[in-house]
Specification:
It comes from Salegentibacter echinorum. The chain is of the alpha/beta class. It contains 11 helices and 15 strands. It has 3 domains: about 5-100 and about 335-355, 3-Layer(aba) Sandwich (Udp-n-acetylmuramoylalanyl-d-glutamate--2,6- Diaminopimelate Ligase, Chain: A, domain 1), CATH 3.40.1390.30; about 110-125 and about 240-325, NIF3 (NGG1p interacting factor 3)-like (Udp-n-acetylmuramoylalanyl-d-glutamate--2,6- Diaminopimelate Ligase, Chain: A, domain 1); about 130-235, 2-Layer Sandwich (Alpha-Beta Plaits), CATH 3.30.70.120. The strands form 3 sheets. Strands 5-10-12-13-14-11 form a 6-stranded mixed beta sheet. The protein has a 5-stranded mixed beta sheet with strand order 1-4-3-2-15, with helices on both faces. Strands 7-8-6-9 form a 4-stranded antiparallel beta sheet.
Length: about 375
């Protein structure tokens, strides 16, 4: 396989269009036309990870965090970022980063955390806006089924746990082809009336090019009439964080002790105990202070995240227990998620979980 083919599989799972605007996802180093010998899956890309890739004959590193985050003006090896990139280039190793494109997926980072905790009735904590579009088009009645089928196959008409969703109205369309036209139906210079079906369906925003292509391929008319509208609806299958419920309520201290053991935390920093049981749990892997109010508004008893600052711990008041379980600790199972997904899709070469522990934080 070529690196490009692997990227296509990754981006089908976590489209880069849904990464946060501040992020730097995608192929960061390497030639997408190169063949893949093996892929090393890691949380971070460091010099030690590149060395592991060399040792294991992997010329592609699939990383959660991007090693290049802000702009680089020089490559002189002056810091760990530049040294890592230079080593990767020297050994023809490509680096792909997925980061918030995966954070925002329903079956992504936070679903993995929720699975480890044992949460049921899971929902996205902060559903994403501006990610759903609507197509409206007009098709002769006889070809309506064919066009609908093509749009469904392209990914249109999926809403949550339902697919093949559309709304159809029948009416009469009119048009007059000019002398330069080559009409499939009707005659040049004459007004034609045609019994048509108006098809309306929604689709994920990142699929727009594919939806338009299939519309034009399947539609019988020389000139295709269609409209695309951006919807304000929140996407319940896309966004940051997750909230769910424990099967049985747990004591606060017992719950945090279980989390500490499950995630192998060096310690858990938390706000004052509320002296209440834990039933509803909100999670957000990585830096999640921005979502404290969202967790509170959702009625969570506890919010698990990382990188909370001193004053953040006041924000829970008595309504919410805040727990900082560590950045690395909260995201550590992400590489298992990627490995599991890719091994179901790829059998052409070795997909290897990195052994290198990239957690920069140590505990004493």
């Amino acid at each position: 396989m070529l690196i490009k083919e692997v990227i296509d599989i990754i981006e089908d799972f976590a489209p880069p269009a849904y990464a946060e605007s501040f992020d730097n996802v995608g192929l960061l180093v390497g030639d997408k036309r190169a063949k893949v010998n093996g892929a090393l899956i890691t949380l971070d890309t460091l010099e030690s990870v590149v060395e592991e890739a060399i040792e294991k004959n992997c010329n592609l590193i699939i990383s959660f965090h991007p090693i290049i985050f802000s702009g680089l003006k020089k490559l002189t090896g002056r810091d760990y970022v530049e040294r890592t990139i230079l080593k990767a280039i020297k050994h023809d190793i490509a680096i792909y980063a997925i980061h918030t494109a995966l954070d925002n997926q329903y079956k992504g980072v936070n679903d993995m955390i929720s699975e480890k905790i044992g949460l049921t009735n899971r929902k996205i904590l902060i559903p994403r806006k501006d990610s759903i579009k609507k197509l409206t088009t007009f098709v002769p009645n006889k070809q309506a089924d064919e066009v609908r089928k093509a749009l469904f196959e392209a990914g249109g008409g999926s809403i949550g746990n339902y697919d093949h969703c559309s709304f159809n109205l029948q009416g009469e369309g009119s048009f007059k082809p000019n002398e330069a036209a080559n009409p499939v139906i009707g005659n040049r210079g004459e007004v034609h009336l045609e019994e048509e079906t108006q098809i309306g369906l929604t689709f994920p925003a990142h699929l727009e090019p594919k939806i338009i292509r299939r519309l034009f391929e399947s539609h019988p008319y020389e000139e295709v009439a269609y409209e695309i509208t951006a919807l304000e609806n929140k996407n319940q299958q896309l966004g940051m964080g997750m909230i769910g419920e424990l099967e049985n309520a747990e004591d606060e201290k017992d719950f945090l002790q279980r989390i500490k053991s499950t995630f192998n935390c060096g310690c858990i920093r938390h706000s004052e105990f509320r002296e209440k049981t834990i039933k509803k749990v909100a999670v957000l892997g990585g830096s999640g202070s921005f979502a404290i109010n969202n967790a509170k508004a959702a009625g969570a008893d506890v919010y698990l995240t990382a990188d909370l600052k001193y004053h953040d711990f006041y924000k829970g008041d008595k309504d919410l227990l805040l727990a900082d379980i560590g950045h690395y600790e909260s995201e550590q199972f992400t590489k298992d998620l990627l490995h599991s997904y890719l091994t179901k899709k790829i059998s052409n070469f070795a997909l290897i979980l990195a052994d290198t522990n990239t957690n920069p934080i140590k505990y004493i």
